[in-house]
Structures are given as structure tokens and as C-alpha cells.
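In the laboratory, one determines a bound structure by crystallizing the protein with its ligand and collecting diffraction data. In a computational setting the workflow is compressed into a single prediction: the sequence and the ligand go in, and a structural description comes out. We illustrate the idea with AHM.
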Amino acid sequence: MLKGMTLTQFLLKQKRTSSGIDENIIGLMEGVATIAKVISREVSQAGLIDLLGYQGDINVHGEQVQKLDAFANTTFINVLGSSGFLTGMASEEIEDFYAVPEGTPRGNYLLSFDPLDGSSNIDVNVSVGSIFSIHKKISSGDAVSVTDFLQKGRDQVGAGYVIYGPSTMLIFSLGSGVQGFTLDTSIGEFLLSHENIKIPIKGKIYSINEGYAFMWEERIKKYVDGAKKEGKTLRYVGSLVADFHRNLLKGGLFLYPADSKNPQGKLRLLYEASPLAFIVEQAGGAATTGSQPILDLLPEKLHQRVPLIIGSINDVKQVEAC
Ligand code: AHM
Ligand code: MG
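The predicted complex, in C-alpha cell form:
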């Protein structure tokens, strides 16, 4: 029973027992935790202070006001960009990848991230999240290249997300189970609250934007009709991390399939689908495009979109059977 451990204590313990965890991964995860605390602080004050303006607005101090997703993106780069653990970063908010400049300490890892997913929900005080994925650099030489980022999800060294909800939680896996830490704001520490998370093999919840039903392919219609007949409940926040997190703990299925408007799907492979697929498989669930496991896809470009069907293993199988 490790509950109550700080993140640092937990990572040091994992390092003693798992050969894949080195000081750089510990430093990287500590960096992610710092980023989570900074973004959490800003998000929690979003309704109070003038943070909701668009980029280009000027606040009362005469300073440029950043949208929160731009703020979150900058926080990732400021905290980890010169940490010495990374050679490059790829973000949903940046067109090209960020290469750690020459002369700045570099490490052997790459971080792909969505700094603030679901940010359209912030204005109405609905939970949002950050999602991240860690790979090892594979190209030779010092410079990072785009192929370093275009690795299969299965080759992730680790992945996770932060949910900014009633409490802030950091959920991650370094390849041996999924752990959940909750931020105790009174001491500023993430404490282990959800040890070795397992997703129920079958859930009662399905999560999909049913407004798009007229654009779905037949098998999605068939699955959703079946789910209703089985008496399942529809829960859809419209904020991926919130929808995924609920289903991870309670069991269920999240679907953002390809449809006639988005034939590639909407969600991004590198920063959304792949890290959550890593988490769900580590928790005993599954993630598919509908025809292939998400983790087996070899990305072709940084901002590639993908259909995503993710959650309890029997529910994923049920869609595949359609
Ligand atoms: P974003 O990356 O622009 O924030 O969009 C991703 C969000 C997810 O959080 C959510 O699952 C999805 O978009 C909801 O899309 P829709 O409004 O089409 O249902
Ligand atoms: Mg996103």
C-alpha cells in the first residue's frame, strides 16, 4: 500500500525496482508535475482574473493577455525546454516541433503534448486537461528530426494526463501500471491517491457526440443503438480528458469516430489518442481506430488526426464486432 506517497518518493521507488526508469525520467516527471501546478493555479483563477481574453488583448497592466492554452504551451516549454532531459518537444499548439537549441543542455527524450485540451470549456468552468507522451530519441547525432516524433505509440516510454477538475490530478504510466496522484494544494504536493488503476472490463457508459449521428458510419450507429437497448447511459462532457478519466475509473467507452465531416476523425494521434491509448492498455483496456490498435499506428505527420474508440476492453470488442 503506497497511498499518500509523494510523487518524488514514488518515482525513486520505481527507479529501484524498474530498470527502464532513470534520473532523466524522474526529472521529466517532476517537470510535468511543476507544469501541472502552474497551469492548475492559472486555470483555477480563470473566472476571477482577466485571463480569458484572446491573444493580442491588452490587460490593465498594459501587458499582452494570453489565452490559457497559449499560457499552458509556454509553461511546458519554459519548464522543460532547457531542463536537460529533452532534445525536442511537439505541441498541438505549435505548427512545427521545438528543437532544444544548441548550447542548451539536451537529454535523450522527446515530449509530445497537448498543453490544454478542451480549452473551449474553460469559459464555462468545465474540467480541462493536459496530455503528454514521452519517447526516446531514435535518430543519430545531436539534432532532433521529425522522424523522432513519428514513432509508434507502443514505443512510448511513458504517457499521462493532468485533469484540472474539482481537484487537480496527474495520471501516468511509465510502462508498469497506471498511477493517479492528487494535488494537495495546502502543501503543494501530488500525493498518490489512485494506486495501480484498472479499468473495469465492461462499462455502463458510452460517450460520443450524438449530435453527429447523421454523419456516422453504419457500425457506429449499430453500436450506439445496441448500447441504448442494453440500458447504457450517455455521458459526454466534450472535454476529452474529463470524458476519458471518468470512463477509466468507472468503466465505459469513449468514441470520436470518423464521420462524413471528419473522415480522419478529429482528435490528434500524437498528443491525444496515443498517450491515452498507452494509459488505457496499461490499465487493462483497449483503444482502436475501429480497424487497428491505436498504439500500432506509425504516424505520418505531427498533427495527424485519427478516429478514436477507447475504454473498457469488452466495449471496444463490441464495436469491433459491429
Ligand atoms: P481541442 O484540441 O481543440 O481542444 O479539441 C479537442 C476536444 C476534446 O477535448 C473533445 O473530446 C472534443 O474536442 C470534442 O469535440 P466535439 O465538440 O466535436 O464533440
Ligand atoms: Mg486537444
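DSSP finds eight helices and 13 strands in the chain. Keep in mind that any predicted model is a hypothesis to be tested, not a measurement.
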